[in-house]
Each structure stands twice: as structure tokens, then as C-alpha cells.
Amino acid sequence: ILNVEQSPQSLHVQEGDSTNFTCSFPSSNFYALHWYRWETAKSPEALFVMTLNGDEKKKGRISATLNTKEGYSYLYIKGSQPEDSATYLCAFPTGTASKLTFGTGTRLQVTL
Amino acid sequence: GAGVSQSPSNKVTEKGKDVELRCDPISGHTALYWYRQSLGQGLEFLIYFQGNSAPDKSGLPSDRFSAERTGGSVSTLTIQRTQQEDSAVYLCASSSDFWGYTFGSGTRLTVV
To answer: Is there a contact between B56 and A99 if contact means CB atoms under 8 Å apart?
Structure first.
């Protein structure tokens, strides 16, 4: 049974703080790791797809790293802003390359 | 269309009634997925359509749930004899390849 775990479950930071959270996944038969951002009342939005060990992706103030040998990925947000408040989901293909199993997410709240 | 469209956006129904949720994927996307998120839970896979292949129904929680995809485009998720535990946000997504999903904005179903 595939298990994608995310920690922490929730996080509350002040504007300007930098933060990071973790996604753990089975390291055997790795194919890819996806990150999504899901803001309240909106659709989940794709952030990154990572495939190579040691890969690092960046989008504005958000970046992610990947360690396929030990089975984890970190998502970093530099200088958090209130608009970063969302649930951040990671996902791992199951069975086929395109069918994803999602973690339970990390809910980030950024306050002024 | 420009994005994945779901309707209705909100649905309140009485316990025991049947409901139909609709998803209109991005034109040309061969894969279509249904997920749901119950309160306090992660995204739960329900069903996956890929082209003309038989759908992967492995995530449907009971035989009260069914889905079809007509003409390789629009999909309808039907829940018969709704129960209170069916209350959730039902998300549809489509994709054309491995590089992640485009999600709709979801249907919030409340069974009273």
C-alpha cells in the first residue's frame, strides 16, 4: 500500500518568515513527485513535478528539493506572504504514471 | 474550454436522494479523474478514465457510486441514496500527459 506522508499537518507563521515542510514517499520504484497548492475556495494548482534525485525547482519565492534515495521532498517558502496561505499537497504516481495518490497536505496560514 | 468546469458548485441534498455531479474537462485531455475531500481528510481517489480504456474504479467507496464519461469528454459522477458520510468536496481533474492535473473548482456536496 502506497503511503505519502506530509508534515507538519498545519503551520502558522508571520509575514516575512521563511518556512518549509516535508513530503515522505516510498523510495522504491520512484517515478515522480508532484507538488500542488490549494487555496480555499479555489482549484488545486500545480507547482512542481520533480523526477530526478537532487532536483531543485523554483517558482518565485517557492522552491522544492527532491531526495529519491531516502524518499523525501522539501517545499520551502521564502519571506511568506498572506497570499501564500493555502494547503500544500504532494502526490506520487500509483499504478500508472498519471494516476496520483495525494498526501493529506500541510495547511499554511500566514498572518500580518 | 479554457479550464476544467464542474457543476454544480454547491449541492445540498436530503439523505437518501440521488445526486449527479458533472465535469467538463479541458478539450483534448484524454485522462479524467474524480477525487473527493471529506472534512479533515486528504484527497481520496475515486475513479480514473483514460481514453477508451475501461475505467479504474478501484477508489469508489461503495456500489452507490458510479461514473461515466460520454464521448471521451464530459463525465458524470452519480451517488445514489446519499448518506451523510458522502458530504465532501468532489474534485474533477483532467490531464493530457504525465505532467500533472488541471483541477476543476469542485462541487461541495452536503447531505442533510
So the answer is: yes
